[in-house]
What does this fold into?
Amino acid sequence: MKLGAAAKRILRPLEVRGANRAAVLLLLQQSDYLSRADVARQSGLSEGAISRIVMDLLDEGLVREDGAENSTGGRPGRRLALDQRRVVFGAEIQNWETRCAMCTLRGRVVRTERFRTPESAVETLEQVARSFTTLSKEFGQDRVPGIGICARGIVNSETGVLVLGNTAEWHNVPVREFLERRLKEPVEVENNVRAAALAEYTYGLPDVAGRHCFLFVKVDEGVGMGVLFDGKLYPGPHMAAGEFGQMVIEAFPGEERHDRPGCLERLISNPAICNKYADLVGNRRQNNGGDTSARVRRIAEMARAGDLSARQVIREVSRHLGLGISNMVWALDADAVVVDAPITEAWSEVESVLRRQLPDARELLGGNALLVRPSVFGGEAALIGAATLPLASIFAGLPPMTSPAGVRR
It folds into this structure.
């Protein structure tokens, strides 16, 4: 048995080459330019191995040579970089709006299309397919094969099924199967918050690199959290990890087992913020339809400008958000937290209240070193994360798999 377990740890030649190739791609993803000698030095691989890997990547159009680096003697080396002309398609399905985009290999959005999300899941996926076809024609050979989709709710990323969405129409939707049969392209599907967490960790500021427990909190029509341990996304055994919105902050009597009174979903989501503000200023509540993110941004802008009612709402919401994050910091010993929410438009108001709820060094070892900041992507992290999904196997050095629809994945 021990011999068998040890044998499973042995990498076969193709696996070694795939792992080395992935290491080279990741180094180039983290730097603007590197020479072959730089890559060899930082990876620990021989220059001969690097040359073979780079030749393959050049042939595949993933890497390009860009000018010569400065030389102190001898023949100057050619600088290597990920080819930013290559793009990949991603789509984020929200309750109100669906956004489709082409992003570069380093997570920069270069083209977007958006449409009002239909009530029908089938109609929504049809419109995503049409956007994919339009953008694919526009970018032609520069497009990397594959499609990334993210959506709210419980998503089984292994099967590509949206298991539990917001309405019955969005339960058990076979997103991958539908789009692969429709478009004959490999499709990856993920929960929107987990996709956003990956984008922030991969393409965001370097201050999260190397963090052991990274929490990404997303507040929009709902409230969710992505958790990465040592850079690895944790989806949970039932693909439901991070349902942060169900955490009860203020307990009230009742028999509810979902969306209970006092849970974060009912305290800090965009619809909840809009309702709090309407109640405070005596306006009629709007229904939860429409672009609640835009309404919350306006409230945050008014708070930043000194509007007392808006400031009161933002501070109350920030306190509840801070309590929820504090619970997770205590539970997981987190060392970095990034918040993606419209209220961060008033970050100075949010941060001062939120941080007062968090443990410091007197209470939690390393508490003062806890990183807390807003997302750098201004609400686009999930969309960028969706476009990152088709690249996951490429950057992990994995061979393509065959999907149930017969499409190479």
